[in-house]
Amino acid sequence: MFSVRAPAALLAVSILLVGSPAAAEVEDPVDRQLTPAAVDAYLDGYLESSPLPGAAVAVTRGTEVVHVAGYGTDSGGEPITADTPMGAASVSKAFTALAVMQLVEDGEVGLDDPVVELLPEFTTADPRGADITVRQLLTQTSGMSDTAFREKSEPAPEDLAGAVARLAGAGLAAEPGTEEHYHNPNYHVAARMVEAVSGQSFGEFLERRTFGPLGMDDTVTVDTVGEVFDAGVATGHIGVLGHAVPVAEPESYVNGAGGMATTAADMSRWLVAQNNGGKGANGARILSQEGVAATHTPLGGVGPGERKGLGWDAGETPAGSPMVSHGGIQFTYTAHQVLLPESGYGIAVMANTGLGSADASALAYGLVALADGDRPASAMGPVLLGVDAVLVALTVSACFLAYRGVRGSGAWVAAARGRGRRRTAIRLVPGLAVIAAAAVPHRLVAALAQGRDLTWFQSLYTAPTAVALLVTAALAFAAVYAARAVRWVRGSRSRG
């Protein structure tokens, strides 16, 4: 007879086993400071103890570049260097916010202006959309949300105008300014507003006002995620059973919110400008000191967006030092940037693994620990491998239990006839719940990720072995229930 008790018990044991892992730790760097040698030692150790194939890193301090380097390889086996194109994902939002601030300093935009006054084409199905301000877009407090507009589930538009046009049917999750919801269309709208106000394409504006002046010659912003790879970024990876598997990134619209392809060398130029009051190491100024400070400053107070700056998040390091940062996550690659105001460090990391591994953020926080004189945390690769192994074992167990359940369906039917319909129906509930869950794993992931939208297919990228277990268990229950139904009908006919 098919039972859910055995898999549940195995899962409980697995959590106990991997919850306090004796996993291989990243070897201590040669020193616990953010020196080139320490960065190299930490990155080399991390790559050795995790499935991550490669990463690019930039570390600056004030106006000086401490270290820029690439580590490991891309999906084609080519060495990653400081000049290798990498996806910046949502790190791009800081560039969009800076572009808006440039227009603010030009006197063309006010942060508290209603967006519709600057971009009349912006409309939503909720009339409150007319009250959304520029600042609310940049601090994710506009009231727009993935729960009201399923961005990832929608077809990808061709350009920023299309990205804004599709919001005409979108609702709002809250009154503008009353709640914080991370929602990429906030930055699609902001980027389109830059186009409308400046009279230039968003890419041209960034090139003229930021990339060009800072010497970021290998950085571009593009419309769709496919164009990120057309710009020279190699195929990214997902982690499965301790291995990084190269897969194509699901198509989505990214410009303004996550559409940049860049290099570690170019990111070092950007970090210098961020820590030097808007002036690059070459002397080019892209924004005033006050303007840069405004992007790093959170809304404050107690309420929505209290830690949100403009394209940045304000917080503290584990050691308690002030920190301004922003991560970027796609399904097959990730990025993270950090500013440490007290020490003057800037850190940027881009990794060629995706959401399920979060390697760029892990590496960035490891480098932050070095800057604070602490020991970086261990790589999660061994833990994730342990979890994957347990999930595979549970998947095999589900197949075996399905076989037993099908063979024992006759005995189950005989017992069920003596139990009564109500008790029999109750016993079917767990399996029906698993079958229902297998139809909507993306909704389960969304519930754990504050309502963020993704498709069923995209949930495979997030947790492939978990989704495989869920689908296998659902098919197992379906097979057992079908066998029982056939036995029940045959028994009823023979009785009749």
Describe the structure.
With 496 residues, this protein is α+β, with helices and mostly antiparallel strands. Mean pLDDT is 90; it is low at 1-25. The protein is globular, with a radius of gyration of 26 Å. The chain folds into two domains: 5-16 and 382-495, no CATH class; 36-379, Beta-lactamase, CATH 3.40.710. α2 runs antiparallel to α12 (359-371). Strands 2-1-11-10-9-8 form a six-stranded antiparallel β-sheet, sandwiched between helices. It has a three-stranded antiparallel β-sheet with strand order 3-7-4. Strands 5-6 form a two-stranded antiparallel ribbon. The two termini are 26 Å apart. The chain contains 18 helices and eleven strands.
Task: Report a brief summary of the structure.
It contains 18 helices and 11 strands. The protein has about 500 residues and is of the alpha+beta class. The chain has a 6-stranded antiparallel sheet with strand order 2-1-11-10-9-8, with helices on both faces. It has a 3-stranded antiparallel sheet with strand order 3-7-4.
What's the arrangement of secondary structure elements?
Elements: H1 5-19, H2 36-48, E1 54-61, E2 64-72, E3 86-87, H3 92-105, H4 115-118, H5 134-138, H6 160-165, H7 185-198, H8 202-214, E4 220-221, H9 225-230, E5 237-240, E6 243-246, E7 260-262, H10 264-275, H11 289-296, E8 313-316, E9 322-329, E10 334-340, E11 345-351, H12 359-371, H13 381-407, H14 409-419, H15 421-439, H16 441-448, H17 456-462, H18 464-495
Antiparallel strand pairs: 1-2, 1-11, 3-7, 4-7, 5-6, 8-9, 9-10, 10-11
Number of domains: 2
Per DSSP, the total helix count is: 18
- Unreliable stretches, pLDDT < 50, 5 or more residues? 1-25
Largest sheet, order of strands side by side?
A: 2-1-11-10-9-8
The span between the termini is 26 Å
Shape: globular
Give, in order, the helices and strands. HHEEEHHHHHHEHEEEHHEEEEHHHHHHH
What percent of the residues sit in helical stretches (DSSP H or I)? 40-55%
- % residues in beta strands: 5-15%
CATH class of the largest domain: Alpha Beta
